[in-house]
């Protein structure tokens, strides 16, 4: 009996160690994929001096094409290796679902385009601060579109984030590396990220609640929507110039697209093995690591107040996440108001007694 008890304890310890190893591996994978995607995209998008090869919309379109191709590959893989790969079956776009998803796809196109344009004009180190107002816009749009009010502690956290954002912009200006276009694109991208998150919940049931199927529809429709945008932006000469690039460039383009596809998977995986709160904290910590890594990689020297601005934004974001988590917990544990049906049931029980 003692031996059986020891074996049981050993099994639980092994299970706990396995769980910790799995969580650590998934969080590390999320960090690697997310940070790598930002650096690869920055390399592909370049800066404001790309010359005759400046085609940010084409780069974004190509990443959508890679995502659609990856969806088809995984669908076939799930048929041949069902025990190893699980992926929803995809095929020709259904007209009904296209009509339902298309409004969200417009937001999706705006979101990924503005994200890439922000990254194009600002440094990787400043990218997180430049895109830090998503939480603020989420509170604003939740009130304007859904009529849901936000608690005072959450609003204070948003005010802290806004303060850190403006301090960061001021410090970028002091350092002589501020891009007004990059900041504008960052603010607009934050707004679209928030709108996309809000309306995704509404559209998701139209694709049977499948995040992957929604991703497939969004990217497939985006591939079509980007074509006139590329023409209107006058990127055709730049695209023709890029066609002469070597194998290394196109492999980097494919890798960038695969990272864009993979980030959706590792994000869902991290939430699955941890929790939404842990995911948000991990994302905030990842942004901090990404900022430090970028300053080292590009040999950037930043002033103390620049680092303070990053710390303020990171602290405000983490505090907001904690406040919302506590509010959800309090709401879940709150006693339910008795209804008329409860009263009727109670009376029936009294009669039976």
Descriptive overview:
The protein has 353 residues and is mostly helical. Helices cover 80% and strands 0% of the residues. It has helices at residues 2-45, 56-80, 95-121, 124-130, 134-146, 152-174, 180-203, 211-232, 236-242, 247-273, 276-297, 304-333, 340-352. Helix 6 (152-174) runs antiparallel to helix 12 (304-333). The chain is globular and about 50 Å long.
Please count the beta strands (DSSP E, at least 2 residues each).
0
Instruction: Determine the strand fraction and express it as a percent band.
Output: under 5%
Number of helices: 13
Cα distance spanning the termini: 47 Å
Element-level helix/strand string: HHHHHHHHHHHHH
Give the overall form: globular
Main sheet overview: none
Query: Whole-number radius of gyration?
Result: 24 Å
The multimeric state of the shown protein is single chain
Class by SSE composition: mainly alpha
Low-confidence stretches: 1-9, 339-353
Mean pLDDT over the full residue set: 84
Helical percentage:
over 70%
Q: Summarize this, please?
A:
Helices cover 80% and strands 0% of the residues. The chain is an all-alpha fold and 353 residues long.
Keywords:
353 residues; disordered N terminus; mainly alpha
Topology:
Elements: H1 2-45, H2 56-80, H3 95-121, H4 124-130, H5 134-146, H6 152-174, H7 180-203, H8 211-232, H9 236-242, H10 247-273, H11 276-297, H12 304-333, H13 340-352
Helix pairs in contact: 1-3, 1-10, 1-11, 2-8, 2-10, 3-7, 3-8, 4-11, 5-7, 6-12, 10-11, 11-12
């Amino acid at each position: 009996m003692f031996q059986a008890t020891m074996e049981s304890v050993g099994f639980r310890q092994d299970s706990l160690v396995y769980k910790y190893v799995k969580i650590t591996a998934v969080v590390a994978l999320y960090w690697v994929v997310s940070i790598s995607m930002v650096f690869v995209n920055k390399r592909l998008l370049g800066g404001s001096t790309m010359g005759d090869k400046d085609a940010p919309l084409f780069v974004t379109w190509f990443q959508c094409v890679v995502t659609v191709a990856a969806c088809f590959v995984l669908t076939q893989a799930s048929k041949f290796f069902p025990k190893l790969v699980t992926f929803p079956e995809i095929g020709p776009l259904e007209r009904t679902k296209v009509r339902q998803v298309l409004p969200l796809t417009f937001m999706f196109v705006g979101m990924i385009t503005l994200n890439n344009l922000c990254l194009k004009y600002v440094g990787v180190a400043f990218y997180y601060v430049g895109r830090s107002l998503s939480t603020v816009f989420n509170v604003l749009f939740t009130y304007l579109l859904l009529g849901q009010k936000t608690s005072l502690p959450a609003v204070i956290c948003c005010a802290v984030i806004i303060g850190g954002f403006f301090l960061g912009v001021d410090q970028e200006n002091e350092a002589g590396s501020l891009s007004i276009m990059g900041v504008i694109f960052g603010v607009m991208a934050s707004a679209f990220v928030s709108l996309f998150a809000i309306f995704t919940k509404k559209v998701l049931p139209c694709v049977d609640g499948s995040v992957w199927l929604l991703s497939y529809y969004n990217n497939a429709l985006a591939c079509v929507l980007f074509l006139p945008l590329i023409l209107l932006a006058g990127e055709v000469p730049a695209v023709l110039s890029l066609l002469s690039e070597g194998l290394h460039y196109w492999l980097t383009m494919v890798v960038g697209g695969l990272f864009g596809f993979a980030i959706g998977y590792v994000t869902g995986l991290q939430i699955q093995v941890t929790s939404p709160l842990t995911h948000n904290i991990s994302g905030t910590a990842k942004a901090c690591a990404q900022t430090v890594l970028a300053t080292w990689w590009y040999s950037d020297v930043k002033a103390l107040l620049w680092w303070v601005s990053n710390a303020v934004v990171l602290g405000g974001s983490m505090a907001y996440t904690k406040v919302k988590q506590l509010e959800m917990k309090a709401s879940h544990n709150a006693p339910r108001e008795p209804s008329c049906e409860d009263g009727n049931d109670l009376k029936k029980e009294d009669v039976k007694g």
